[in-house]
From TrEMBL:
Homodimer. Residues 25-40 have a biased composition (Gly residues). Belongs to the purine/pyrimidine phosphoribosyltransferase family. The gene is apt. It is an enzyme of class 2 (transferase). This is Adenine phosphoribosyltransferase. Coiled coil: none annotated. Residues 1-40 are annotated as: Disordered.
């Protein structure tokens, strides 16, 4: 899971608590009456209405990007997966590697949508067999991710998927795991990018696809 934390960005405005359906809004209408996912206007940009900003979380001065309203709204969730599928068109790959935990929520349905294999990159100690491990730095400390050693075969072309591209540290670690096992990183795909954090600089010259730049 990439960090979903960032300094407040007015370009991503989330729904008010309760969501449009609980307030009696029409299905597919975004918060505040704007056309949203599943409606007649907005396209992928309409997905912004389903991403909620939580200020001062987990620490003061940091805003958390909460995608649970999007996940909880069927048409919005489907549109997000369709938008990711469109974004990665033209990238040739054999399987998707997604990062625990929110990356799973996008990577697994995208793999099903595209008929590709799925590799979960997990936190240490969660996989039962021999693993490859990569340690890396987070904004607030150190972390590591692991995959089963047989999850990626030499020569496999792997698309790395996560919810947010922030500093790029987690994605770079995932790429190192793929290469450690003899695979090739075909590219990266994200629902959201926090461009101010310049995470792309850590991903080399591989393709990077984003549905919602911020």
């Amino acid at each position: 899971m990439a960090s979903a934390f960032h300094i407040a960005d007015p370009g991503l405005r989330g729904p008010v608590p309760g969501g449009p359906d609980e307030r009696g809004g029409a299905a597919g209408a975004g918060p505040g009456g704007a056309a949203g996912p599943g409606g007649t206007a907005g396209g992928a940009e309409g997905l912004r209405a389903w991403i909620r900003q939580v200020p001062d979380y987990p620490v003061p001065g940091v805003t958390f990007l909460d995608i649970t309203p999007l996940l909880g709204h069927g048409p919005a969730f489907r549109q997000a997966i369709d938008a990711l599928a469109g974004a990665v068109a033209g990238i040739e790959f054999d399987r998707i590697l997604a990062i625990e935990a929110r990356g799973f929520l996008l990577g697994a349905p995208l793999a099903v949508r595209l008929g590709k294999g799925f590799v979960p990159a997990r936190k240490p100690g969660k996989l039962p067999l021999a693993v490859a491990r990569q340690d890396y730095q987070l904004e607030y400390g150190e972390a590591a991710i692991e995959v089963h050693r047989d999850a990626v075969a030499p020569g496999d072309r792997v698309l790395i998927v996560d919810d947010v591209l922030a500093t790029g540290g987690t994605s770079a670690a995932a790429a190192a795991l793929v290469e450690q096992l003899g695979g090739r990183v075909a590219g990266f795909a994200y629902l959201i990018e926090i461009a101010a954090l310049a995470g792309r600089r850590r991903l080399g010259d591989r393709p990077v696809r984003v549905v919602l730049p911020a």
